[in-house]
Each structure stands twice: as structure tokens, then as C-alpha cells.
Sequence to fold (612 residues):
Amino acid sequence: MVCVENLTKRYKGTLAVDKLNMEIPEGEIYGFVGANGAGKTTTMRIIAGLLAPTSGKVYVDGMDVSKEPLEVKKHLGYMPDFFGVYDDLKVTEYMHFYAGLQGIPHGKCKSLIDSLLELVRLANKKDAYVDTLSRGMKQRLCLARSLIHDPKFLILDEPASGLDPRARVEMKEILRELKSLGKTVLISSHILPELSELCTSIGIIDAGKLVASGSVHEVVKKLAHSGKLRIKVIEKEEDAVKILMEMPGIGSISSVSGVIEVDAGGGEEEYAKILKTLVSEGISIISFQPVEGSLESVFMHLTERGNGNEN
Amino acid sequence: MKINPVIEKDLKTKLRGWRSTILICCYVLLLIGILVLYFAGNNMLNPYGVRSFNPRMAVDAYNLLITFQFALLFLAVPAITATSISSERERQTLDLMLVTRTPVVKIVLGKIMVSLAHTMLLLIASMPVIGVVFFFGGIGFLDIAKLLVFYIFTAFFVASCGVFFSTVFKRNIVSIIMTYIFLGLVTFGPFIGFLIYTLMQQRMPGGFSPVYSQFATMLFPSSVFGFTTFYFGGSNMAYGYYGGINIFSSAAQEIERQLALATGFWKYMQPWLLNGVFNILASILLIFLSTLVLNPVHRKR
Fold:
């Protein structure tokens, strides 16, 4: 559905996106993760045809965004991270306006708008002025707007930012419905547990480069390697700690009620060596497992670099 | 026929409520006020004053009204259009429009048409006031119709300028200022240039007395030049108090005199026609440039 090839965007000497390659198959909910300033919004704006790339190509449904922008826009819905609404319009008028801009015949508008407002749970607000809506409602209205022409592909830039927990849950439910409707969605968010629940695949962008891409499980496995081991012993807990402390390359060690957590640092070879040493020293081990990381730990790892502002 | 959604939405929001109605009423009342003050100032409303009516006064009143309208067109239209795109950008709604299937040129034209519709509304609402001069004769329906066409051409150009600067500059205030500066240069620049040229030529041996073709080739971009067509030989007596109008009145009379003396091609090239053609061509260029600036694939940021 979406193919990004060697995408580069440079702003007056600052490299926002650096030879980025990405592919989103049809029907995928693709989560786009990265620290502020990593190049997420720039990439999304280029895919949406709102920004010209310095170099590289973007194809949506096989069409080149820079060569066939109007054709691409037929299949693309876009919801930016910051967006405005016309305060002096009613909800239905707002939707009619965008339906008109998308070339939807007037006759079809009413039923279409009603069904979309139903989808985003705003049916009871259709005669309200937009400025009377809460932030969460405005966000949902904007989502309904981006769906007005029934696009195959949706770009949602931080759809849950600034929302309270209830509004986030509502937004998540709507996104689930979109998933069930078979839409291809590119979504960026900082609410990572929600993202990992929703997304079928994920891409991690750092300093304009896609550092990892694949299913959520694959990416977490690859990047969230914590280097920690959790060892459960039946007895000789103190002896085990002492042995571990004497081993080279071992970091922090904590021990509570027979469960020892140790920062082993290295990889599988190191783990095997630790296990072999403990067993040979007569420690009775009932479980020995690496501590699994999370998407959040991946994100934290990336944001530690302290990149600049959002692009 | 499908209405441009930008026009539909903007007119809906701008005409909603009492604001527009009050604005139109104020405008018409202002024109009536000017007319009444003019007649009162010339003793025409005093039952013990002038008994015999001078038809020249009706023509002068007409001149005064259309000059006021012309000035208002230059002041009001940029105020509407110079913020049309930049305010969408400030409100963060521009991207939402650009990501739709509507071509950029349609969005730009929509914004221009909205301001034209507003201008037309004000002009049409003021017609009954201007029509008062029909009671006294001297001005024909054709003159008024021609004037309306000229106003539309001019408003189209002024609106295109406003939209163009609105696409170039991100902030409303900068866009408004730049539009007024640009319009000031296009309107008065040719007159200043022509004056300097004339003064320089007059210093040459044999002197210099410009003919219509020279007026036309140098002044055609100025809408004030085009407007001289509709200025009915302004009375110096009536405008003696207003220096600016007096100068303009003299210039209008001189251009009118030179046009009467013109022959061949220039005989048919009336100021309003020349300026009208310039306004249309310049507007097309400005719309094209606006589209180019606004087109997302050309945008740097």
C-alpha cells in the first residue's frame, strides 16, 4: 500500500529524514515510534503530499505522491498532530465543507456524515458549534473528517495527544473499528502500550533513519534486550549473590525472597556461563530467564539521546 | 452546478448573524450621509437658499460618491483577502484543505470570489444611493454599468494581490501591510514616474506636452488612471476644499482632453479598458504564482 524509498528531507542544513526506506502492506496498522525531532511528522507530511522531499520517492497504492498528488489524495486520509477547526461552523457544516472539498456529491453527504458521526460517537453533537466541543470531541471530529471520502490509507499523527484517559480509550476503540474495516493506518503516538496493543507492525525512527521495522514482537525482541537475568533459587540465595558479584562483567544485583535480578550485560553466551557457574557451585536453580523488554523501554532507550524539537 | 466549497463555507460563516447586515447598513448610511452633507454644504437643502438647481452639482455629487467607493474598494478588499490564506495557516486548517482532492487553484479562486462577492454586495447595496443622481440627469445607466464592470476588474486584481501576499507571508499582519504597499506602488507609482518623466522632458529644449498615447503607455497599470474614465470633468469649484481631489480632477480632465484628441488605435483605448485588461492579466499571473507557492509539493516547510 505504501512504499517509501530513500526518502530524505533537509531543512536549511538540518537533516530531518535521512534516506528512509519503509513499506506498509495493505491492511496493516503501522505504528511509527520515535523521539521528538526524530522525523516522524516530516515523514508523515511528505507521505500525505504536504511537503516536498529533498530526494527519494513515496508511493501510495502504486502511485507516486509527487507525480499524481490528486489521485493519491483520493485514497489518503490525514489527521495532523495539531489541527484547527472553524469555530463558527456547526459539526455537520464542518463535515459538509470537507465533503465538498473531497468532491462528494451533495446528495450522498447527509447519510455519509451521519454514519461517520455515529462511528466517532458524535451523532448527538451534529448541530453543535465546533467551538463548543471538548478537545477529545474535536479530535474525533477531525478523524471523521479524514474518513469522509472513505480512504484506504489513513495517516494519524499523534491522534491521542492531549487527551484525557477516557478520551484516549474512546479513540482507541474507534481505531480498533477502523482496523476491523480493513483500513491501512500509519499512526504515530507516544502512548506506547496502546500502540503495541493496536498495531500489527511498527517502525522506529531515530535521527531521521528507520532503525527497526517489523511486527511489534519482533522489534521489541530485537531492540528491547535489557541484558537482565531473573534467577530463582530454592536455597543458598546469599551464596548465589556472592558468586555472581565475583564474576566479571556483572552489573547491579538485587535479591528478594529467592529471586535474584542481575544485570548481566552480555548476550546468550554470558547467560550460559552464569548458569554453568552457579550450577557447578551447587546452587539449586528452579528458574533462569532473561528479563524481556517492552516497547516503552525501546522508546526510552531512543529518547535518551535527547534529540531536538519535533519536525 | 456545484458551488466551490470554499465560497460556500466562507460566505456562510461571514454572512451568519447580524455582523454583515450591520456593515452593509452602515456603508449605505455613510454614502447617504456624504450625499446629504454635500447637498447641505452647497445650500441645496436650504429652503431659503439657492432656488435654481445647478445640474453640475449632481454630477459632482456622483463624482464624490464613486471616488469614495473606489477608495473603499482599495481599503476593504485587501483587508478581506490579505488574510484569507494566512489566517487558514494560523488556524492550522490550511493543511486540511490541501490534503483534499480540491486543486490548489480552486482554493485560491474560492478565496478571491468570496471577496468579490462581498464587494459586489456592497456595490449593489449602494446603487440606490448612486441612483439619486439620475433624478438630476447627466449620468446614464450605461455609465453606471461600465463603472460596475471596472470595479469588478479592479476588485479582482486587488483581491488577487491580497491572496498572493497571503500565500507568501505566514503572518496576517505582514501580509496585509505588504498588500497595501504593493497596491500603493502599482496605483501611484506610475503617476509619480510619469510626473518625473514629464518634468525631465520639459527641461529639454523644445519643452514637452504629453499626448494620450504617452499617458496610456505609462499609466495603464494604475487603477486611478482607469478610474479617470468615470470622472465626469470634476468641478474645481466644488472640490476646491480638497486638494487631493482637485489634483486628481485636473489630471482626469487632462487625460479626458488628450483622449478626445487621440487618433487611430489609441482613440479606442479608453483608460478603464486598458487598466481593466492589465488588471485581468496581472490577476491571472498572481493566481498562478499563488498556486505555485501554495502547492504542497513546492512547499519547503
